[in-house]
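Let us practice reading a record.
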Amino acid sequence: MEWIQEGKMEEGKVIESEKAVLSEILQDFKKKEKEIGGELAEALKNTKREQNFLGKCPACGGDLKIIVSKTSGKRFCGCSNYPKCSQSYPIPQFGSITPLKKGCKVCGLPMIFVRNGKKVFQMCIDPKCKSKENWGKK
């Protein structure tokens, strides 16, 4: 673009030159399309797994993760060793949930960050945790 502005090269020649470069890049991409697609799919799967991982199951040591029920469509925290381990915890149904990668100071279970519109808060996944004793009380 600078060369065109400075009058060192004509617009048509720049466009043709760039078309050739892009064509070469696209040919290389086409040759490796399946390999690139496979790597992207694997990266996406790993990212989703990491985003849904909350911590270790206190019952069996498996992974606690965010699961969406196929029957009800509701989400909850459950153990990866299901059906051998049926440990589960309710989590908010609305808003985004981000694992905090730390344990509750009271009970040690995983903490999550919840963002639902303007409401934002951190909470332990255990509904019976002493840290929630004063929730909803003013």
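A brief commentary: The chain has two domains: 2-31, 35-130.
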